[in-house]
Fold 16S rRNA (Guanine(966)-N(2))-methyltransferase RsmD.
Amino acid sequence: MSRIVAGAAGGSPLVSVPGEGTRPTTDRVKEALFSRLESMNMLAGTRVLDLYAGSGSLGVESASRGAASVELIEFNDKAAAVCQRNAELANKVIGSKIVKVQRAKVELFLDRGVEAGADPWGLVFMDPPYPLTETELSLVLELLAPRLSPFAVVVVERSARTPEPAWPAGLERFAEKKYGETRLWFAEPAAAGD
């Protein structure tokens, strides 16, 4: 059973997505990831985007640990319903409606752009399904890059057997870490003039 690891809602169980096609982030990987993000001061007050959210586990964890707002983007009907349930749980425990869910294709969501007056995202999780091709992943990264704050962090989670994403001109990798069958890539906006 997946759970919220720490923060205001720490220890709360999460609803899992039934069926095939999703691979939840393990608690071990989640603990390591969030330990790193907290050491980078990337959570408190940050606007978070969880693309291909699945159960919404990463976004909800961010909310529990002090994110200012969290958007869970999921297209699959069953997964989006689970995201909604987990968002409601987190919002109730935290006492604020900071986690929101949108049922949408990631590409279309990003192509619409940032809503008027909204701050850019400071932390983005991307845990796409295995069938997503490297070309499709590159397109999503390209759409995402101009919608990030200058000090944003993008975390891409994939199978350890997949190649490193092709980073668009606006993003550059600064770290990667392998946990068994999972690999995390960390990227940030490219410095002007690079």
